Amino acid sequence: MLQVSSPFPSPFYVNLRIFQTMKVLIAPTALKGSLTARAAAQAMATALPTGMLPIICPVADGGDGTLECLVDGTNGMFFDTTVRGPVGRMNVRARWGVLGDGSTAVIEMAEAAGLRLLNRREYDVAHASSYGVGQLIRAALDAGYRRILVGLGGSATNDGGTGMARALGVKFLNRAGHELSEGGIWLNDLQSIDMRGLHPAVSQCVFSGLADVDSPLCGPEGTTKTFAAQKGASTAEIEQLESAMLRYASVVKTLTGTDVLSLTRVGAAGGMGVALREFCRADLRSGIDFVLRTMKFDSLLQSCDLVLTAEGMIDSQTFQGKAIAGIAQRALFLNKPVHAFAGRVVGGPAALAKSLGIASVRQISPSDIPTAEAMSRASEFLTDAVSRFLESLPR
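Below the sequence we write its predicted structure tokens.
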């Protein structure tokens, strides 16, 4: 296990110029596949003219970038562990970390089972496994950590977190008493769950799952029907996976007495919330709320004149616990204007801004540019979009 020190000594970078008239809080999340939250913040800060003071606070909502945001933001430490990737025989060198308090471990699901680890030809959500996430948790347990945060988002999986649970010693059995193959689609054959081999340290731990969406496990707004197509599922696979999640929920209810179908956030990260809650006794909370509290965002918000944020896409899913929705809620309470930038905006920008309660929504790249080009030029487009916006402000 290789220990790596954090490259960022503080969660905030402030350009200390003597004469300033406007404080701008720059708080983007990662633009998935293009820019980390910190890289996005730096691109946005580049656009600020003389006379504006940037206060940089990259954020995350439980998905991509949560590990980096929390560890950097608390002056923590990173570690590396080789674990199984989400598909096939691939192995990945995944990071995990410890907060500045020295006692809280942070696991980001996307590090071990993230969609970002695959190219589109490798997408196989029906058979993808979260096993590597369990290996990261086991590494933290074996290192002695008993407070564990798990970022739930950006996954390539739809296995209900069963792969994670397998890595911690849980067995998922068919009618003949044999272990099922890994992958959500095989849960259609689930008959029973054997928790006798669960890692003994799990019972000594306090787990928290940081969800990037409020999704239930099943139904029209559940994990499968909302996100599986984005992970490469065909129409037939979506129906099979939905059936598998219903079967999984039924067996979990028999085991624990909990009707997970009635709960929100359990659908986060391909249903990982179910396994964390039922096998690790985790509380599931809003990822963006937790991150903003940890970063002391409200204090920064009080001191600024306006807020600039960014995300890869703004659409109907933005309202389901994503970063911009969390920022908007806090800014509205303090009457601070928020201007949001996105690689792609799906829907009317004015209507989305009104629904979110923010001042404006802007797409950073022309719609006729191919997605691959837009993503490769994200830093350039983001800087230019912010620059043009700031030039339009009254002087």
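Residues 1-20 have pLDDT under 50 and may be disordered.
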